[in-house]
Amino acid sequence: MDRYEKHIFVCINERPADNPKGCCSTKHSMKIFQKFRSEISARDLKGKVCATKSGCLASCETGPNIVIYPEGVWYNNVTEKDVPEIIDEHIIKGNIVDRLKRSPS
Ligand code: FES
Fold this sequence. Notes:
Blueprint: E1 6-11, H1 29-42, E2 49-54, E3 66-69, E4 73-75, H2 83-93
Bound molecules: FE2/S2 (inorganic) cluster.
FE2/S2 (inorganic) cluster binds near residues 24, 57, 59 and 65.
């Protein structure tokens, strides 16, 4: 099987509520992951684009975080509402969604 044209990793890491690092899971990252999956199906992109659950991407304070390959572009503070725009702009048209892109630290 050929590799995917685009691979989206969504952090769904979960930590206890009292952990000072926080986690993407408490910021609804599983819903974001499920939205990517449903949008990929709805747009008939299965086989070309894949969304995969990821562990901690080590940027917990700015989560929910996702990273898209092969570009290696990171998006921070992603919400479920952002998913269609990321699919339309980044995945389909190849345009980075600047307002969500991780700023260099
Ligand atoms: S918990 Fe998601 S980046 Fe660390």
